Here is the input.
Amino acid sequence: MKKIIISVIALAMFFACTEKKVEKKEVLDSVTKTISAEKGGVIETEDKEGKIEIPAGALEEDTQITMTRYKKDGFPEKDDLVSKVFEFGPAGLEFKK
Here is the structure.
C-alpha cells in the first residue's frame, strides 16, 4: 500500500512540475500614430493590410494609437484563424462613438 501511495505522489509531482509549451507570439510590425480628437484619423500598416479609421469626435483627447500585427502562429487554434492577428492600444481606450 505504501508503494502505491509513494508512486501516486511521485507521478503527481512529475506532472505538476512538467512545463507546458507556450508558443511565442511573433510581431510582424507595429505602427503608432497620434489621432486628433477633433479631426479623427487613420492608422494603417505600411503594406495597407491592416487599417482602422477613427472618426472625428470619437476620442476624448488627441491619443496615440498603436496597431501591432502578429503572425497567427503562437495563438491557440491558429489553424482556424483566417488572417494575421492585430492588437490595438492603448489598452482600455473607450471611444465616444
